Amino acid sequence: MQPFFTGFISLLSLILALGAQNVFVLRQGLLRNHVFVICLFASVSDTLLIWTGVISFGMVSDIAPWIGQFMMWAGVLFLGGYGTLRFRAAYHGEYELELGQGTQSLSKTMLTLAAFTFLNPHVYLDTLGLIGAVSAQFMSMPDKYLFAAGASLGSVLFFFSLGYGARSLAPIMVSPSAWRILDICVGVTMWVIAALLIIS
Fold this sequence. Notes:
The chain is an all-alpha fold. It has one domain. It has eight helices and no strands. The longest helix is centred in the last third of the chain and has 33 residues. The two termini are 16 Å apart.
């Protein structure tokens, strides 16, 4: 089950960082605006991108065997750099979480969420690139599928927890100290995953 848990933890470490999509889901959760549909769309979209990244990365690796090693080191550099950015954000402590008022129609809400999801280059970097690169350490396809399943479960749990837990988390999420602690935890996790990639 190691591939499953590796995928689960890897996805959560990436998705926890504050971003446009996460803030939008959080805002809609606070407003109780189409929460279930929003969480379902976000998690299903993430799942499709995760599986595409894991499967297509494996196919590319079969054609060019050296790509796995290259992407592994690229992943290490990205994880190390991203972790450093999280530590830098925690040090400067400039956090703003804008929570709008009012509700939107379902169609307008979903169009906005789709834009946050598919027009965000970081989504592709995380799911198609980095998740695919981390999955390259597992040689057999069953292990890769377990990795993708773990990452997919992490996405589903995160978005539904964020959407439905927004009300109770609101006082914490708007606290700069909470975001500072979160960034430190994400930074540590990124560095740990980078180290595991190197020694694997």
